[in-house]
Amino acid sequence: MKAIRTLFAACLILALLLGSFGCGGSKASGSEYAIQDPLLACDAPAPDNARVFYEIFVGSFSDSNGDGTGDLKGIINRMDYLNDGDPNSGKSLGIEGIWLTPIFVSRSYHKYDVADYYTIDPAFGTQEDLDTLIQLCHERDVKLILDLPINHTARNNDWFSKFTVAHRNNDTTDPYYDFYSYYTKGETVPAGRTFAALSGTDIFFECNFSNDMPELNFDNPLVREELLKIARYYLGRGVDGFRFDAAKYPYFGDHDPNVDFWKEYLGTLRSEYPSMYTVAEVWDGDGITDRYYPATNCFNFTTSQAEGLIADTAKAGNAGKFTKYVEQYLKSIEGTNPDAMYVPFIANHDTDRAAGYLTTANGHMQMAANLYILGPGSPFIYYGEEIGLRGSRGGANTDANRRLAMLWGDDDTVQDPVGTTYSASNQIQNGVSVQKTDKDSLYTYYKKLIMIRKANPAIARGEYRSVSVDGSKVGGFVSTYNGTTVLVLHNPGGSAQTVDISQFGDFSVLRAAIGVEDATLSGTMLTLGSQTSAVLG
What we know:
It is a single chain. By secondary structure, the protein is of the alpha/beta class. The protein has helices at about 70-75, 80, 125-140, 160-170, 220-235, 255-270, 285-290, 310-315, 320-335, 365-375, 430-435, 440-455, 460; strands at about 5-10, 10, 55, 95-100, 105, 115-120, 145-150, 180-185, 195, 205, 240-245, 275-280, 295-300, 380, 465-470, 475-480, 485-490, 495-500, 510-515, 520, 525-530, 530-535. The strands form six sheets. The protein has a seven-stranded parallel β-sheet. Strands 15-16-17-22-19 form a five-stranded antiparallel β-sheet. Strands 8-10-9 form a three-stranded antiparallel β-sheet, with no helix packed on it. The protein is globular and about 80 Å long. The model is unreliable at about 1-30 (pLDDT under 50).
């Protein structure tokens, strides 16, 4: 592959920045390859609606005590990897926010069936460990959000035990009698929902995800108050907000009462914690997620996964079509909520990993990263994405294969979760320890990409206007923030393209370029290599 370069005006800055970004290549001396370009300096913290987040599936990330399970102390030990506290050191990944999958007491490895919301699962650590992590994150200007699955609980949750006793005693005065959703034998079964018999009674409790995950009754004011108490408890400890699981299921796909619940619930919390960060999993098309935006930001599923717009564009698609979609999406969500935030991602713990359908050898993985990190909103990186970690459900149809152990390449003892069937022969060979010292690694690519984003605040924070180039697959956007305007162009095509950038405005400086080929600017003529993006000012 050809060299990738960061260019400022007519000069090249530091020979250290030159080189292709494949997964092999020469190694730099020392323990870590540091990008030290002073013109990639970050001069101000990112606002909450423009932070780069990192999702950690806690049990698979880093093990601090040798039991094979990732834990909170493991994350604490890896904070220098994620964010070393110096945005200009060029040594850490530069993450600005962390999403932890559920950390509460649960019998399952994934912890989405909570037995006790107020206790950290012993496999993950203690409340004191969480407090330490919160403090460390805040010292480094990193937001920490917790995954809060409140649509359902575990069957061994004390609430469900009390619910069961109340029904076995037929005690309708018990406050837990109506704590969960149920129907009585002989009544009509609500369409589309799943129920299981509660032994010793004549009722059937709702359990749409699993018989071990009974659904709470959101018509019960006591339920709503208990859920507020949980959120207040963690916000009071310093957590910055939450990711809400299965947000369209409190009323099983009945969107109007769902939205009403989230408006009431989050509105109450925001009145007490105005800066609370929230994002919801509403796994659906834009027409549905738009309905939830008056209450909370939502992940964008249209652009994610193997069939999403990001992957489709990265694999020699039309970048102008993609950025036009982003512009329209921004207008749509901002029309329902002026504070709405675009939340893109390409994979998470519920999807096959991106490295399985996007490869680095042809630049598809790099271009996908460019498309969603060099853009507006708050992008979410799934742990291991930055090193090309692989994993898919496969024939065994198990999500454990999507949540495999992070490959550190050192003495970390974290292991794959229970139920994993993914073949080690299909996994990448070079983990973090190798990629950190390699100027050509995918890890270094992601690190530089985040630095470019931070050094050019208008990329993520400005007023967005999509642009396209007739007769080519080149496209991008113009964005203005605090009097500074940038032009971002992507070329996901298979050959270099020359573009007269004067059609988009007055841009005379090639501030940065990143991809698998070169970018050069001569006057107003930009030559943009294949699978390469450029930032101009």
